[in-house]
Amino acid sequence: MDWYGRRFSIYQTRSGDILLGTTAGVFKYNRSQNNFTAIPQLSGYTYNIIEDSRGVWWSATISEGIKFFNPLSGESGHFENDPKNKGSISNNMVNSLYEDSRGNLWIATEGGGACRLSADRKTIKRYNAKNGLPSNFVFKVLEDNSEQLWLTTSKGLVQLDPQSETTTVYTSANGLLNDQFNYNSGFRDESGRLYFGSVKGMISFNPSSFHKNSFVPPLFLTGFQVHNKELAIGQQSPLKQSILYTNTIELAHDQSSFSIDFAALSYTAPQMNQYAYKMEGIDTKWMPLEKNRKVYFTNLAPGKYVFKLKAANGNGIWSLKETMLTIIILPPWWLSSTAYVIYALSALGLVTFLFRNYHRRMKLKSQEKLDLLHFEKEKELYEAKMKFFTNIAHEIKTPLTLIKGPLERIIKKAEVLPDIKNSLAIMERNTDRLIELTSQLLDYRQTETGSFTLSFTEENITQLLQDTYFSFKPWAEQKNLNYTLHLTTDPLIAFADSDALSKIVSNLLSNAIKYADKKVSIELAIDNYDKTFHIEFQNDGDIVPADMSEKIFEPFFRLKKTEKQKGTGIGLSLARSLAELHGGNLVVREDKSMNVFRVTLPIYTERQATIDRNVSSIDFTDKINTSTIS
User: Fold this and answer.
1) How many CB atoms lie within 10 A of CB 233?
2) Across the strands, what pairs with 37?
3) Could you tell me the pTM of the whole model?
């Protein structure tokens, strides 16, 4: 038998097999041959052996964690510590194993606390000094008749509720022989009585006969020290009466380091009393104190604090009422309210002086910039007007030149009537163009200096678009453009200012043709939802940049790409102003392939409007016909 090594554990299985745990592993006794056979699946220095409720054999080893072997299926394996995995067992040195009534396997380790391996053998939960145990050296685990677990440690006996995971610690202060228990020393008899071995003898008790201490001890403050010196009681002292009867204490700024004594009056295992405090203004949670009945505070900032204290007896029953002490630390004179008023007034005076000085200097600079800006604006306005009149002169010159050609042809071919008729038609159109340019100039001047009055009459919008379309058709054909007009099925009748609307349409169509490359189209549509109609003018010329979609409606503004084209720079501005006077709007609709100018106007059956340039609102008298417009 010597070659089996030292023996630490003997266990009889439910089937009657005898297992022997040794320094060389687990051996099974063979009755027929009167010898032992090694179980290779349970090798290693073995402290303890058990058989679980499923017939699986488990061994606790000194350095290889725990191992298992199913003698029926042959399945085997082991669990060991993995420093990178908190879901592994806490220590590879295992003292003992125990299966509770729920099928959980409890693992008592040397320095790693206790671990619970779930009944399905998939998850491990750790219990140690951080969550209720007095020590991480656990020797034995037993379960009582109430399914409470009892763990022996190097610092006392622990009662663990596996459901709530709360613990109660019993030590020599509760009457135990001592706090140090022996390795793997524990037993439960049929009556439920538990037996545990300690270094000073055996402890025996029945948990069902335990009577918990339910007395909640009263709690008192017993002392107050400033700079480690007891604070005297007196009228000149912050402590006017005994600390037992003091609710508020006021300290000077140089008394901000202090300590407080307290005691719970429980005479049943007073060493097991527990304390917790919270200083409101500093702490956000309760701070536990196991045995020390004094708490220290150092160099607290001036302000108001509330010291709160509570206590529990040896069975962990906490007092419901808290003991409180309000502590006020006064600021030094240079941080007092009077000092802050002086600081504020001084700062205000300095800021006022600096502000006035800065304001004076900025006013001088602003005046200089304003004078310069005024000069530049006048110069810019003068140059813009000069450019405007120059453009007008160019626009007038071109129609006159076109008139001169047909006149010469009339002189040469006066006898041919068809030619004379065509030439006269060309003369008429260009004469009309001269009148149009002159009217634009006058209209713009009128909107710039005075009021503009619209006269609303019943207008055939469809017919107006057709007339304008055909008046510009020769120009479009001259440029070889794909020139189209899209109208509604039925004629659109609405009240509008005929002259103003013609100006809007003519300006937009003129621009579309002037800057088009190959295509110009006009489209009329009705929106019955909000009783409006819109006209879109599309051309495929240079696309107006998105950041210029509003800038182009400013008077005299022209894009650099189109500066060489003849024009006054007021057509779009005038068209938008007239559209807004109608109660509508003119915008550039976003389109990547075409320039799309959309004018939207309301549909009225009768409308009068008087627009004053200096008044922000427009007065309307409306009589709306509720019949459907199609």
Assistant:
1) 14
2) 28
3) 0.46
